[in-house]
Amino acid sequence: MDFKKARGFQDFFEEDCLKFDNTLSELFKILKRFDFSRVEPPLLEDTNLFKRTLGSESDIVSKEMYSLQKGKENFTLRPEGTASIARMLVTQNNYRQLPLRWFYYGPMFRHERPQKGRFRQFHQLGIESLGDSQTETDVEILSMAWLIVKKFNLKSHVFLEINSLGKKEERDQYKKQFQKYLFPFKNKLSKDSQIRLNKNPLRIWDSKEEEDQDILKKAPLLIENLDSSSLQRYSEIKNLLKDLKIPFKEKPQLVRGLDYYNDLVFEWTSSQLGSQSALIAGGRYDTLVEQLGGIQTPAVGWALGLERLNLLCPAVKKPTLQIALISSGEGTQKAYKLAYQLRSEGYSVYYRFSGNFSKQMKRASSKCLWFLIYGQKEQKQESIILKNLKTKKQVSLALSDLSQELNKRLNSLDTC
Ligand code: HAM
Question: What is the CATH number of the domain that holds 306?
Fold first, then answer.
């Protein structure tokens, strides 16, 4: 039988996992500086949660969800984390703890067309600040993303683009005006945009089709239709960004593909990621919690795609082990017991049952600095050779002195 990996799903081998672990540990350090606490919603949620919050006409809900039916219930593998976070807050029903700062990390699932940087299973690190409405909060979470961009040396090709979507009433009014402008061009629009024209006209701004771009050049912009309070809020954010010297560009065409946003929306994009250029993206969503039956809770957040960040980062070196225990075929039992003893004392040990002496030495030499040579002669004499591979110096020790000697030269990781 010929088993193939599902399209858009990836196997992670050691070098991939090392990169993920390394990237995450750096990211967690930055999140800690901002006092965000980790939470983890389940992978599976009631399908209606996503239908109701992301928008029935969004790409995710209309064509990308992995859903399954169990009895009378319909579940969906989470395509993103924000809806689940809002749901968690409502389910927990403890609003006294607000404001909250939560982050989550894990796989998300979207049935998209796979390409560079776009997978059907991908990993997001998401942060959500719940309960704060100040513009300083918007800029605080942007400043966190900026520290990430700097930490990973991405400053030369990752840029921040921002826009304001204002309030729902402003968007509703704008949609009518936008549709009115587009209707005369209906037949010239791309197929996708023709469908969106009635159902979700704002998304037409996301189109990359040339025929749409031409028509959009003269279209009215949402930002031109916001009232003074929305514009004031947006202007405060821009000033705060300038104050922190975080470079940004205004992009009035930026609308984002999810329905829950209001006011600030943003994307950090990289010119090195090809067409899937968004690395970190998010915005404010002040009505989502209420929409799910909770109390009115202002909120803002973003999510970062780990696969995309890893595409921009160099490979990570394999960590070394502390000791290589080299033994010959006979007397394996003694060597295997010794390996167990060393590991219980807290050392990381390279030890393999197979391979002759020189093969074992060769394999271990890239992994360890210290070698313990435990050949037949040593085993008979209850001794062992300790060799430093760098200095090439070696000493022969009584086996009973080994723990003491290692203690002097190496740091045990942990004992058990
Ligand atoms: P999003 O823009 O759909 O937003 O996704 C955020 C990030 O996830 C993207 O910028 C990208 O790095 C990564 N990503 C998305 N789809 C894929 C894919 N198919 N393959 C690889 N990476 C991908 C959200 O999900 C919102 N929940 C963000 C948010 C949090 N807004 C407020 N809080």
Answer: 3.30.930.10
The predicted-structure confidence for 204-223, as pLDDT tens digits, reads as follows: 998 889 999 999 999 999 99
Please choose, from the candidates 86, 12, 15, 83, the residue with its C-alpha nearest in 3D space to the C-alpha of residue 47: 83
Is 262 part of a structural domain of the chain?
yes
The predicted-structure confidence for 64-113, as pLDDT tens digits, reads as follows: 999 999 999 999 999 999 999 999 999 999 999 999 999 999 999 999 99
Pocket test for ligand 1, best of 124, 142, 266, 275 (most atoms within 8 A of CB): 124
Q: Please state, as a whole number, how many other Cβ atoms lie within 10 Å of the Cβ of residue 290.
A: 14
Please tell me the pTM assigned to this model: 0.94
Number of domains in the chain: 2
Tell me how far apart the alpha carbons of residues 238 and 264 are, in angstroms, rounded to a whole number.
Answer: 10
| Closest protein CA for atom 17 of ligand 1 | 118
List ligand 1's pocket residues with C-beta within 6 A.
80-82, 110, 112, 117-119, 122, 124, 126, 128, 278-283, 301-305, 307-308
pLDDT above 90 as % of the chain = 85
Question: Same domain, yes or no, for 128 and 231?
Answer: yes
Residue of 53, 58, 80, 165 with the most ligand 1 atoms within 8 Å of its CB, for mutation: 80
Residue 272 domain boundaries: 14-166+226-311
Q: Does the pLDDT value for residue 415 go beyond 70?
A: no
Contact 334, 374 (CB under 8 A): yes
Q: Same domain for 159 and 258? A: yes
Peptide bond before 201: cis, by omega within 30 degrees of 0? Answer: no
For residues 156 and 105, membership in a common domain is answered with yes
> How far is C-alpha 259 from the geometric centre of its chain's CA atoms?
21
Mean of per-residue pLDDT scores for the chain: 94
Asked if residue 214 is part of any domain, the answer here is no
Q: State residue 178's pLDDT score.
A: 97
Going by alpha carbons, the residue nearest to atom 8 of ligand 1 is 305
Write out pLDDT tens, residues 111-165. 999 999 999 999 999 999 999 999 999 999 999 999 999 999 999 999 999 999 9
Structural domain ending residue among the three candidates 264, 287, 311 = 311
Whether residues 327 and 307 fall in one domain: no
CB neighbours (10 Å) of residue 23? Answer: 21
What distance in angstroms lies between residue 232's CA and the mean position of ligand 1's atoms?
Answer: 28
